[in-house]
Amino acid sequence: MKRISIYFLLALAMMSVNRKAEAQQHSQKFCYRQLTGNVGTQLHIIMNLVKVNDSLYGEYSCLFTGHLESPWTTTDEPVLVLFSGKMNKSGTFRLREDREWPGDGGPIISGKYTDDGPINATWELAAAGIKKEPFKLTDNFPEGSSRFSVQYLADRAKLIPDAKSPMATIKLALLLPFAAPGPWNADSLHAQILRNFPEKSFARGTQDNLLTMIRQDFFNDYVRDNRELYKEMPGASYSWELNRAVYICYNANHRVSYGIFSYIFTGGAHGNATHQFSTVDMKTGKVLGLADLFKPGYEDELSVLLTGKLRKNRHLPGSHKLSDIGYFTDKIQPTRNFYLNENGIGFCYNQYEIAPYSSGITDIFLTNAELKELLKQPW
What does pTM read for this prediction? Predict the structure, then answer.
């Protein structure tokens, strides 16, 4: 599967630019919700939803409870899916998946958003002939799950004091745990997110001023690198953009798996998008690595599984190599950039790691059934 981040990026781009939105918490404008729902008797959805003003984003996973005729035609299986969308003044929303579908036939979730209580929605999947199947999304924080506050900042700055000046824009959405299960606390996860969210270290960065410091640093770099060039060559494009957001992949059984999406454009042919994942054991505060999940000596067999799954997803015949279709290697090694969900483990390879920029971000998902002989224990 190629994680392309197009719809997610558009959703971030449409978030309003308003300094008053800075670092607000526990507001109906900004919230994180974990929701579950059943589409008929066929599909069970677990959704981690983030609301920022009138934009919605997050990830959901699907568990099949019945027979559904090949809905995931591009991957042959359900995976953890990034989604995003907008809602109008009445709360009506439309969510789309962030991955490629032939003929724009991917799933669409539509409905009426409510701050409290169930959300009435419909599930539409043209590829499987499903047209607006009604279902209900209900808040559900299972045992061992954590709750998160949402902070948001959006701003823009001119390169020079002129109405036609190029601009730098920044949009940041930060999730931080404020309640954790059991007698332990969320301090370790809280500190780790604060450390991982910025691209550079801020010695004085705290929950209250981190977003402001990232903004100021980005704008300072923008002016420093471009103002004199603009005076010499005013016809060129000098606009910059930074979008960064935290999202939750898995939040149950005393484990939190989260991602940080980042898109940055500082000139050139194109911007650069990345997904960086971490998983934390909320009982111990430990950041989990592959060795914590897999039995000793897992590396070679896991590489075989990853290579085989990527070949399957790319419909590559046995006589062809991955390098024949542009990959830098014919054998995919495990990456530390992985996430958990209810169905299994996803391994994310950002642009240029195993393939050129044009191939996008490669996400290889292995199900619990495929991994059962390698895992130390299920979660």
Answer: 0.88
